[in-house]
Every structure is written in structure tokens, then in C-alpha cells.
Design brief:
By secondary structure, the protein is mostly beta strands. It has no helices and eleven strands.
Length: 125
């Protein structure tokens, strides 16, 4: 059973930083597609940052230049460094994984088979 466990969420003021972690177990972590998604109350889930199985990285436009996704294959851990946080970044953040995701659907959460329980990020103005 694949397991993803997020941590690192919290409450910060606008302009602050948080680092989310996603500890993964029981799968070939290094080759998997991994991503961070978020969902704010009353809004649809959206992809924030993804790492393709081959290592390519992409970000949604709203976080480019502020968020950094990284993988530590030795520790089986995915990170999301979030800087210059804004109130609109407030959401539940989820780590997701899949053995493969079609490129055209890489931002579609339905393509990711495994999900963590989520960690709350709240940014106050």
C-alpha cells in the first residue's frame, strides 16, 4: 500500500514562508510522477507544482517565482518551498503520486492514483 504523508503546513502572515514535506513509502519513488495540489474552500482543486517521472518540473502561473518543488530520492521525500506567500495561497495542500501521467493531463488530479491526507496552509493579510 502506497503511503504519502504531508507535513509542514501552518499559519503565516503574507510575505512569509513555509516548507511542505511529503514522505512517500512503498513504491519506486524516484520514477513516479509527483505533484502538489491545493483546494481552497468553495473552489476546485488545482495543481500547484509537478515533477515528471523523468525530473522535469512545472508550476502553475500563480506560484511561479515564489514556490519551489523538489525531490529527495534518497529520503523518498517531496518538498514544496513556498516563499512570498499571499492570502490567496490559503488552502489545503495535498501531495499526489502516480506511476505515469499522460503529458496532456498532467494537471488533472484524477490522473494521480495516490494522495496524502493534506496539510492546511493559512496566509493572513
Amino acid at each position: 500500500q502506497v503511503q504519502l504523508v504531508e507535513s509542514g503546513g501552518g499559519s503565516v502572515q503574507a510575505g512569509g514562508s513555509l516548507r511542505l514535506s511529503c514522505a512517500a513509502s512503498r513504491f519506486t519513488y524516484s520514477s513516479y510522477w509527483m505533484g502538489w495540489f491545493r483546494q481552497a474552500p468553495g473552489k476546485a482543486r488545482e495543481g500547484v507544482a509537478i515533477v515528471e517521472g523523468g525530473g522535469s518540473i512545472e508550476y502553475v502561473d500563480s506560484v511561479k517565482g515564489r514556490f519551489t518543488i523538489s525531490k529527495d530520492n534518497a529520503r523518498n521525500t517531496l518538498y514544496l518551498q513556498m516563499d512570498s506567500l499571499k492570502p490567496e495561497d490559503t488552502a489545503m495542500y495535498y501531495c499526489a503520486a502516480a506511476p505515469y501521467v499522460p503529458w496532456s493531463s498532467r494537471w488533472n488530479g484524477l490522473q494521480y492514483k495516490y494522495w496524502g491526507q493534506g496539510t492546511q496552509v493559512t496566509v493572513s493579510s
